[in-house]
Amino acid sequence: MSTISVIIPAYNQGHFLAEAIRSIQAQTYQDWETIVVDDGSTDNTAEVTRSFTDPRIRYVYKQNGGLSSARNEGIRHAHGEYLSLLDSDDCFLPEKLALLVSALEAQPHLGLVAGQAIPVDEHGRPVGKQFDTPLPNDPAQLLLGNPLHVGSVLLRRCWQEKVGFFDETLRSYEDWDMWLRLALAGCQMSYIPQPVSLYRFHTAQMTRDGGQMTTATFAVLDKLFSNPQLPAEWQAMKERAYSHAYLRKAAQAYRSRQYQIGQESLCQAVALNPDLMADHADSLARHFAGWIELPKTPDKFAFLQDIYNNLPPNMPELQARRQQDLSRAAMQIAYEAYADKDMKKTRTAVRHALRYQPSRLANRGTWSLLVRSHLAISKSGG
Asked: pTM for the whole thing?
């Protein structure tokens, strides 16, 4: 068996840390070491770590320097042939290490293997849709966004040594920067369509800082495209890459109700990639539908309404499909709520759908859903 070094950067997340460590101890693959890097915490991170008597768990303290700095410190203390990264508020599923190390050892040409992640809330309850975007066949497509959850990855140590440490100038998306550098260096990657980790969303989480994430997105791209050695096929992706970055900026802006920034970002995205407006802006509408599925979106329908109510005035194609798209989204939410036996949410969503597209009332499925939700609420006395 080959040793896997699991690096846990920890900063004031002592209330989640024990669960993260226990998820490593529960692995079916047991040849591992864990390095908890306390990045200048002021809470009980040290006490939590030292409460574990397992000799495979080590504690390292450093002055606060940020996530990349803490991960790099952990890597410097690691002895394993493979590296696995676990944020202190996330968890591994029991088969994570076994599945990914088996894939790497069966395919020596691979440098990185990743699995899926299940988003959960602070209590460990699933929220939103599973992170299940596979790795692209063309490595240059990684420029369009980060498809990987860092806790769902296993990396050969030799490849990290080849491309260097995490970029400590980046405050977010340092993992995306790492995957891009690995791909450029020729690291072959593979994907397992199976959940291997839990990705926790909570109020104190760094990725909720939309401004920081937006700044980091452009910093990663600016750094990469300033490289004079960048292959031509990667250079050819520049406008699409920045277009996608502006789309992510727009999503963050609409989420924080900064509508002018959202409108400007949409316009910049379309200017860089006019294909977004093809087929009655179908591609752009699909992006909107994807935004509302993110775990950090508490009210999907209200968010989509906000977007369509605050579109740039020079995009009549989107205005023309507003009623249809809002009605379709509401019905999707209704079916999901019905499956979850949430009848009040089902009824509300169906009403939204009918408000924007009254003709849906002629649809037997819509009518049936409305009647069943009403009857269930009446029966429960709600």
From this structure: 0.93
